[in-house]
Amino acid sequence: xxxxxxxxxxxxxxxxKLWSVDPKVTFLNHGSFGACPxxxxxxxxxxxxRLEEEPVRFFYREWEPLLDDARSxxxxxxxxDAQDLVFxxxxxxxxxxxxxxxSFSPQEEILTxxxxxxxxxxxxxxxxxxxxxxxxVAKIPFPIESPQQVIEAVIQQxxxxxxxxxxxxxxxxxxxxxxLQQLVEELQARGVDTLVDGAHAPGMISLNLRKIGAxxxxxxxxxxxxAPKGAxxxxxxxxKHSQIRPLTISHGANSPRTDKSRFQLEFDWMGTDxxxxxxxxxxxxxxxxxxxxxxxDELMQRNHQLVLQARKRLCExxxxxxxxPDEMIGSMAVIPMPKxxxxxxxxxxxxxxxxxxxxxxxxxxxxxxxxxxxRISAQIYNRLEDYExxxxxxxxxxxx
Length: 400
Hints:
The protein has 400 residues and is an alpha/beta fold. It contains 16 helices and twelve strands. The strands form three sheets. Strands 2-8-7-6-5-3-4 form a seven-stranded mixed β-sheet, sandwiched between helices. Strand 3 (109-113), helix 7 and strand 4 (134-138) form a beta-alpha-beta unit. Mean pLDDT is 95; it is low at 1-10.
Protein backbone atom coordinates (compact mmCIF):
# COMPACT_ATOMS: atom_id res chain seq x y z
CA UNK A 1 0.00 0.00 0.00
CA UNK A 2 2.76 2.46 0.87
CA UNK A 3 4.30 2.21 -2.60
CA UNK A 4 0.95 2.90 -4.23
CA UNK A 5 0.27 6.07 -2.26
CA UNK A 6 3.77 7.53 -2.21
CA UNK A 7 3.20 9.44 -5.44
CA UNK A 8 0.17 11.21 -3.99
CA UNK A 9 1.75 12.73 -0.91
CA UNK A 10 2.30 16.26 -2.16
CA UNK A 11 -0.67 16.77 -4.46
CA UNK A 12 -4.06 17.32 -2.81
CA UNK A 13 -5.96 16.87 -6.05
CA UNK A 14 -4.44 13.41 -6.40
CA UNK A 15 -4.93 12.66 -2.70
CA UNK A 16 -8.64 13.16 -3.18
CA LYS A 17 -8.60 10.29 -5.66
CA LEU A 18 -7.82 7.97 -2.76
CA TRP A 19 -11.40 8.53 -1.60
CA SER A 20 -14.72 7.87 -3.35
CA VAL A 21 -15.95 11.40 -2.61
CA ASP A 22 -17.85 12.86 -5.56
CA PRO A 23 -15.31 14.96 -7.50
CA LYS A 24 -18.10 17.35 -8.55
CA VAL A 25 -18.79 18.28 -4.91
CA THR A 26 -16.67 20.58 -2.77
CA PHE A 27 -16.79 18.35 0.30
CA LEU A 28 -16.26 20.34 3.51
CA ASN A 29 -18.15 18.00 5.85
CA HIS A 30 -15.81 15.20 6.81
CA GLY A 31 -16.95 15.72 10.40
CA SER A 32 -20.50 14.42 10.06
CA PHE A 33 -19.95 10.88 8.81
CA GLY A 34 -16.29 10.76 7.79
CA ALA A 35 -15.22 9.33 4.44
CA CYS A 36 -13.52 5.96 4.08
CA PRO A 37 -10.54 5.66 1.69
CA UNK A 38 -10.79 3.21 -1.19
CA UNK A 39 -7.87 1.15 0.14
CA UNK A 40 -9.65 0.57 3.45
CA UNK A 41 -12.93 -0.25 1.73
CA UNK A 42 -11.06 -2.81 -0.39
CA UNK A 43 -9.85 -4.52 2.78
CA UNK A 44 -13.40 -4.58 4.10
CA UNK A 45 -14.61 -6.13 0.86
CA UNK A 46 -11.96 -8.86 1.17
CA UNK A 47 -13.12 -9.59 4.71
CA UNK A 48 -16.74 -9.71 3.61
CA UNK A 49 -15.84 -12.12 0.84
CA ARG A 50 -14.14 -14.40 3.38
CA LEU A 51 -17.17 -14.20 5.62
CA GLU A 52 -19.63 -15.10 2.87
CA GLU A 53 -17.39 -17.78 1.39
CA GLU A 54 -17.61 -19.85 4.58
CA PRO A 55 -19.67 -18.08 7.28
CA VAL A 56 -19.37 -20.86 9.84
CA ARG A 57 -15.59 -21.04 9.57
CA PHE A 58 -15.33 -17.26 9.70
CA PHE A 59 -17.42 -16.83 12.84
CA TYR A 60 -16.11 -19.89 14.65
CA ARG A 61 -12.42 -19.61 13.80
CA GLU A 62 -11.48 -16.23 12.31
CA TRP A 63 -13.82 -13.66 13.80
CA GLU A 64 -12.49 -13.48 17.37
CA PRO A 65 -8.75 -13.30 16.57
CA LEU A 66 -9.46 -10.57 14.00
CA LEU A 67 -11.58 -8.65 16.49
CA ASP A 68 -9.00 -8.97 19.27
CA ASP A 69 -6.23 -7.79 16.96
CA ALA A 70 -8.28 -4.76 15.92
CA ARG A 71 -9.02 -3.98 19.57
CA SER A 72 -5.34 -4.24 20.49
CA UNK A 73 -4.21 -1.91 17.70
CA UNK A 74 -6.94 0.59 18.48
CA UNK A 75 -5.98 0.50 22.16
CA UNK A 76 -2.40 1.40 21.25
CA UNK A 77 -3.61 4.27 19.09
CA UNK A 78 -5.85 5.85 21.75
CA UNK A 79 -3.70 5.16 24.80
CA UNK A 80 -5.87 2.58 26.52
CA ASP A 81 -5.63 -1.01 27.73
CA ALA A 82 -7.28 -3.44 25.32
CA GLN A 83 -9.16 -5.18 28.12
CA ASP A 84 -11.04 -1.95 28.84
CA LEU A 85 -12.29 -1.58 25.25
CA VAL A 86 -15.23 -2.99 23.33
CA PHE A 87 -16.49 -2.18 19.86
CA UNK A 88 -19.88 -0.57 19.29
CA UNK A 89 -21.45 0.68 16.02
CA UNK A 90 -21.25 4.39 16.92
CA UNK A 91 -20.64 6.74 19.84
CA UNK A 92 -24.37 7.28 20.39
CA UNK A 93 -24.69 3.56 21.09
CA UNK A 94 -21.78 3.81 23.52
CA UNK A 95 -23.49 6.63 25.43
CA UNK A 96 -26.74 4.67 25.51
CA UNK A 97 -25.01 1.55 26.83
CA UNK A 98 -23.60 3.41 29.81
CA UNK A 99 -26.68 5.50 30.62
CA UNK A 100 -29.05 2.55 30.35
CA UNK A 101 -26.82 0.24 32.39
CA UNK A 102 -26.48 2.51 35.41
CA SER A 103 -29.05 2.70 38.19
CA PHE A 104 -30.01 6.15 39.45
CA SER A 105 -31.92 7.28 42.52
CA PRO A 106 -34.56 10.04 42.29
CA GLN A 107 -32.53 12.35 44.51
CA GLU A 108 -29.51 12.19 42.19
CA GLU A 109 -28.60 14.58 39.37
CA ILE A 110 -26.97 14.08 35.98
CA LEU A 111 -25.07 17.07 34.66
CA THR A 112 -24.51 17.96 31.02
CA UNK A 113 -23.97 21.13 28.96
CA UNK A 114 -25.93 23.23 26.49
CA UNK A 115 -23.49 22.05 23.77
CA UNK A 116 -24.35 18.35 24.14
CA UNK A 117 -25.16 16.40 20.96
CA UNK A 118 -28.92 16.09 20.48
CA UNK A 119 -29.03 12.29 20.16
CA UNK A 120 -27.10 11.81 23.40
CA UNK A 121 -29.16 14.44 25.18
CA UNK A 122 -32.28 12.53 24.12
CA UNK A 123 -30.82 9.34 25.62
CA UNK A 124 -30.02 11.23 28.81
CA UNK A 125 -33.54 12.65 29.06
CA UNK A 126 -35.05 9.20 28.45
CA UNK A 127 -33.04 7.62 31.28
CA UNK A 128 -33.59 10.56 33.61
CA UNK A 129 -37.34 10.53 33.11
CA UNK A 130 -37.60 6.80 33.83
CA UNK A 131 -35.48 7.08 36.98
CA UNK A 132 -36.93 10.37 38.18
CA UNK A 133 -33.48 11.96 38.04
CA UNK A 134 -32.97 15.69 37.56
CA UNK A 135 -30.94 16.81 34.53
CA UNK A 136 -28.83 19.88 35.20
CA VAL A 137 -27.46 21.87 32.25
CA ALA A 138 -24.28 23.89 32.56
CA LYS A 139 -24.47 26.87 30.23
CA ILE A 140 -21.15 27.26 28.47
CA PRO A 141 -20.88 30.65 26.77
CA PHE A 142 -20.63 30.89 23.02
CA PRO A 143 -18.79 32.72 21.57
CA ILE A 144 -16.15 31.71 24.11
CA GLU A 145 -12.87 33.34 25.08
CA SER A 146 -11.07 30.65 27.07
CA PRO A 147 -11.20 26.92 27.92
CA GLN A 148 -11.36 27.97 31.55
CA GLN A 149 -14.91 29.16 30.96
CA VAL A 150 -15.89 25.53 30.30
CA ILE A 151 -14.36 24.41 33.61
CA GLU A 152 -16.06 27.18 35.53
CA ALA A 153 -19.48 26.66 33.95
CA VAL A 154 -19.49 22.91 34.64
CA ILE A 155 -18.02 22.95 38.16
CA GLN A 156 -20.41 25.71 39.18
CA GLN A 157 -23.32 23.31 38.58
CA UNK A 158 -21.87 20.35 40.51
CA UNK A 159 -23.72 19.61 43.74
CA UNK A 160 -23.72 16.92 46.39
CA UNK A 161 -26.39 15.15 44.31
CA UNK A 162 -24.38 15.04 41.07
CA UNK A 163 -23.87 11.39 40.15
CA UNK A 164 -22.59 11.63 36.58
CA UNK A 165 -21.47 14.22 34.04
CA UNK A 166 -22.14 13.63 30.34
CA UNK A 167 -19.71 15.83 28.45
CA UNK A 168 -18.47 16.21 24.88
CA UNK A 169 -14.77 16.05 24.14
CA UNK A 170 -15.31 17.95 20.88
CA UNK A 171 -18.72 19.51 20.42
CA UNK A 172 -20.75 18.75 17.31
CA UNK A 173 -22.64 22.02 16.97
CA UNK A 174 -19.87 24.45 17.85
CA UNK A 175 -16.71 22.46 17.05
CA UNK A 176 -15.05 23.25 20.39
CA UNK A 177 -12.43 21.10 22.07
CA UNK A 178 -13.28 21.06 25.76
CA UNK A 179 -10.41 20.97 28.32
CA LEU A 180 -11.28 17.39 29.14
CA GLN A 181 -8.38 16.20 31.25
CA GLN A 182 -8.58 19.15 33.64
CA LEU A 183 -12.35 18.84 33.78
CA VAL A 184 -12.17 15.11 34.62
CA GLU A 185 -9.64 15.82 37.37
CA GLU A 186 -11.88 18.49 38.90
CA LEU A 187 -14.89 16.17 38.82
CA GLN A 188 -12.98 13.20 40.22
CA ALA A 189 -11.87 15.37 43.12
CA ARG A 190 -15.56 15.88 43.86
CA GLY A 191 -16.39 12.19 43.54
CA VAL A 192 -18.26 12.56 40.24
CA ASP A 193 -17.98 10.06 37.37
CA THR A 194 -17.63 11.22 33.75
CA LEU A 195 -19.17 9.84 30.57
CA VAL A 196 -17.36 11.41 27.62
CA ASP A 197 -18.93 11.64 24.18
CA GLY A 198 -15.74 11.63 22.13
CA ALA A 199 -17.42 11.08 18.78
CA HIS A 200 -15.08 13.42 16.87
CA ALA A 201 -11.84 12.98 18.80
CA PRO A 202 -10.11 9.80 17.49
CA GLY A 203 -7.94 10.82 14.56
CA MET A 204 -8.66 14.53 14.95
CA ILE A 205 -6.56 15.04 18.06
CA SER A 206 -4.02 12.90 19.88
CA LEU A 207 -5.70 10.72 22.51
CA ASN A 208 -4.41 9.12 25.69
CA LEU A 209 -7.35 7.70 27.61
CA ARG A 210 -5.14 6.55 30.48
CA LYS A 211 -4.00 10.14 30.99
CA ILE A 212 -7.47 11.65 30.59
CA GLY A 213 -8.83 9.33 33.26
CA ALA A 214 -12.53 9.47 32.36
CA UNK A 215 -14.77 6.79 33.86
CA UNK A 216 -16.38 6.10 30.48
CA UNK A 217 -15.32 7.27 27.02
CA UNK A 218 -16.86 6.48 23.64
CA UNK A 219 -15.58 7.58 20.24
CA UNK A 220 -16.15 6.97 16.54
CA UNK A 221 -13.61 5.32 14.26
CA UNK A 222 -15.54 6.13 11.07
CA UNK A 223 -15.02 9.91 11.29
CA UNK A 224 -11.43 11.17 11.52
CA UNK A 225 -9.87 7.71 11.73
CA UNK A 226 -11.53 6.99 8.35
CA ALA A 227 -12.63 3.43 9.11
CA PRO A 228 -15.80 2.11 7.44
CA LYS A 229 -19.18 3.23 8.79
CA GLY A 230 -20.30 1.34 11.86
CA ALA A 231 -17.00 1.29 13.76
CA UNK A 232 -16.75 2.91 17.18
CA UNK A 233 -15.53 1.97 20.65
CA UNK A 234 -16.57 2.17 24.27
CA UNK A 235 -13.97 2.45 27.03
CA UNK A 236 -15.03 1.55 30.55
CA UNK A 237 -12.80 1.94 33.61
CA UNK A 238 -11.69 -1.40 35.02
CA UNK A 239 -13.68 -1.07 38.25
CA LYS A 240 -16.91 -0.41 36.32
CA HIS A 241 -16.84 -3.38 33.91
CA SER A 242 -19.41 -5.40 35.83
CA GLN A 243 -21.92 -2.54 35.79
CA ILE A 244 -22.02 -1.85 32.04
CA ARG A 245 -24.05 -4.13 29.78
CA PRO A 246 -24.69 -3.96 26.03
CA LEU A 247 -28.08 -2.86 24.72
CA THR A 248 -28.59 -6.42 23.43
CA ILE A 249 -28.25 -9.25 25.96
CA SER A 250 -27.04 -12.39 24.23
CA HIS A 251 -24.84 -15.47 24.68
CA GLY A 252 -22.15 -13.70 26.68
CA ALA A 253 -24.47 -13.24 29.64
CA ASN A 254 -24.04 -16.88 30.72
CA SER A 255 -20.90 -17.92 28.86
CA PRO A 256 -18.80 -20.42 30.84
CA ARG A 257 -15.58 -18.95 29.42
CA THR A 258 -13.03 -17.62 31.89
CA ASP A 259 -10.34 -16.45 29.44
CA LYS A 260 -12.13 -13.14 28.86
CA SER A 261 -14.05 -10.73 31.04
CA ARG A 262 -17.84 -10.85 31.09
CA PHE A 263 -17.65 -7.24 29.86
CA GLN A 264 -16.00 -8.26 26.58
CA LEU A 265 -17.86 -11.53 26.20
CA GLU A 266 -21.18 -9.67 26.29
CA PHE A 267 -20.23 -6.81 23.98
CA ASP A 268 -18.21 -8.82 21.48
CA TRP A 269 -21.12 -11.03 20.46
CA MET A 270 -24.63 -9.59 20.51
CA GLY A 271 -25.91 -11.70 17.63
CA THR A 272 -25.06 -12.21 13.97
CA ASP A 273 -23.89 -8.99 12.34
CA UNK A 274 -21.26 -7.75 9.92
CA UNK A 275 -18.16 -7.13 12.09
CA UNK A 276 -15.86 -6.15 9.22
CA UNK A 277 -15.97 -2.41 9.95
CA UNK A 278 -14.33 -3.09 13.33
CA UNK A 279 -11.73 -5.34 11.73
CA UNK A 280 -10.72 -2.56 9.30
CA UNK A 281 -9.74 -0.14 12.07
CA UNK A 282 -6.07 -1.26 11.97
CA UNK A 283 -5.96 -0.73 8.20
CA UNK A 284 -7.46 2.76 8.60
CA UNK A 285 -4.89 3.64 11.27
CA UNK A 286 -2.05 2.39 9.05
CA UNK A 287 -3.35 3.96 5.85
CA UNK A 288 -4.00 7.45 7.22
CA UNK A 289 -0.74 7.39 9.14
CA UNK A 290 1.18 6.67 5.92
CA UNK A 291 -0.06 9.64 3.89
CA UNK A 292 2.51 12.12 5.22
CA UNK A 293 6.15 11.63 6.24
CA UNK A 294 5.39 12.64 9.83
CA UNK A 295 2.56 10.14 10.17
CA UNK A 296 -0.49 10.87 12.27
CA ASP A 297 1.11 13.77 14.12
CA GLU A 298 1.78 15.60 10.87
CA LEU A 299 -1.66 14.75 9.51
CA MET A 300 -3.50 16.10 12.56
CA GLN A 301 -1.34 19.22 12.64
CA ARG A 302 -1.80 19.79 8.91
CA ASN A 303 -5.60 19.55 9.22
CA HIS A 304 -5.56 21.84 12.27
CA GLN A 305 -3.54 24.52 10.50
CA LEU A 306 -5.72 24.31 7.39
CA VAL A 307 -8.95 24.80 9.32
CA LEU A 308 -7.44 27.76 11.19
CA GLN A 309 -6.44 29.39 7.90
CA ALA A 310 -9.84 28.65 6.43
CA ARG A 311 -11.87 30.11 9.29
CA LYS A 312 -9.68 33.24 9.37
CA ARG A 313 -10.16 33.76 5.64
CA LEU A 314 -13.92 33.14 5.81
CA CYS A 315 -14.39 35.45 8.78
CA GLU A 316 -12.53 38.20 6.93
CA UNK A 317 -14.57 37.74 3.76
CA UNK A 318 -17.90 37.62 5.61
CA UNK A 319 -16.89 40.38 8.06
CA UNK A 320 -17.73 38.32 11.13
CA UNK A 321 -15.77 37.68 14.31
CA UNK A 322 -13.96 34.60 15.54
CA UNK A 323 -16.05 32.67 18.07
CA UNK A 324 -13.29 30.90 20.01
CA PRO A 325 -9.50 30.84 20.47
CA ASP A 326 -7.33 28.73 18.17
CA GLU A 327 -6.48 26.31 21.00
CA MET A 328 -10.10 25.15 21.19
CA ILE A 329 -10.17 23.99 17.56
CA GLY A 330 -9.06 20.68 16.08
CA SER A 331 -10.00 20.03 12.45
CA MET A 332 -13.47 21.62 12.55
CA ALA A 333 -14.48 25.23 13.01
CA VAL A 334 -17.74 27.14 12.92
CA ILE A 335 -18.27 30.44 11.15
CA PRO A 336 -21.16 32.71 12.22
CA MET A 337 -23.26 33.94 9.35
CA PRO A 338 -23.30 37.65 8.47
CA LYS A 339 -26.27 39.88 9.31
CA UNK A 340 -28.00 39.18 6.00
CA UNK A 341 -28.10 35.45 6.69
CA UNK A 342 -27.97 35.05 10.47
CA UNK A 343 -31.73 34.66 10.97
CA UNK A 344 -32.33 32.50 7.92
CA UNK A 345 -33.42 28.89 7.61
CA UNK A 346 -30.56 26.43 8.02
CA UNK A 347 -32.08 23.84 5.68
CA UNK A 348 -32.55 26.42 2.93
CA UNK A 349 -28.98 27.70 3.24
CA UNK A 350 -27.56 24.17 3.15
CA UNK A 351 -29.62 23.28 0.11
CA UNK A 352 -28.66 26.44 -1.77
CA UNK A 353 -24.97 25.80 -1.14
CA UNK A 354 -25.28 22.23 -2.36
CA UNK A 355 -27.72 22.68 -5.25
CA UNK A 356 -26.40 25.96 -6.67
CA UNK A 357 -22.70 25.74 -5.86
CA UNK A 358 -21.99 22.05 -5.29
CA UNK A 359 -20.72 22.66 -1.74
CA UNK A 360 -21.44 20.10 0.97
CA UNK A 361 -21.11 21.81 4.35
CA UNK A 362 -23.34 21.62 7.44
CA UNK A 363 -25.39 24.65 8.41
CA UNK A 364 -26.18 24.52 12.11
CA UNK A 365 -28.86 26.41 14.03
CA UNK A 366 -27.74 27.73 17.43
CA UNK A 367 -30.12 28.69 20.24
CA UNK A 368 -28.59 32.14 20.80
CA UNK A 369 -26.73 34.76 18.80
CA UNK A 370 -25.12 33.98 16.43
CA UNK A 371 -28.16 31.95 15.38
CA UNK A 372 -26.77 30.33 12.25
CA UNK A 373 -23.37 28.66 11.94
CA UNK A 374 -21.54 26.99 9.08
CA ARG A 375 -19.20 24.24 10.29
CA ILE A 376 -16.19 23.52 8.12
CA SER A 377 -14.01 20.42 8.32
CA ALA A 378 -10.43 20.02 7.11
CA GLN A 379 -9.19 16.63 5.94
CA ILE A 380 -6.07 15.94 3.91
CA TYR A 381 -7.99 15.96 0.61
CA ASN A 382 -9.16 19.57 1.23
CA ARG A 383 -7.39 22.71 0.00
CA LEU A 384 -7.60 26.36 1.06
CA GLU A 385 -9.26 27.11 -2.28
CA ASP A 386 -12.25 24.99 -1.20
CA TYR A 387 -13.02 27.41 1.62
CA GLU A 388 -12.42 30.47 -0.51
CA UNK A 389 -15.04 29.11 -2.88
CA UNK A 390 -17.42 28.70 0.08
CA UNK A 391 -16.86 32.33 1.04
CA UNK A 392 -17.61 33.42 -2.52
CA UNK A 393 -20.81 31.35 -2.55
CA UNK A 394 -22.02 32.74 0.77
CA UNK A 395 -21.41 36.26 -0.55
CA UNK A 396 -23.68 35.57 -3.53
CA UNK A 397 -26.61 34.28 -1.44
CA UNK A 398 -28.91 37.19 -0.65
CA UNK A 399 -31.33 35.52 1.76
CA UNK A 400 -32.46 32.20 3.18
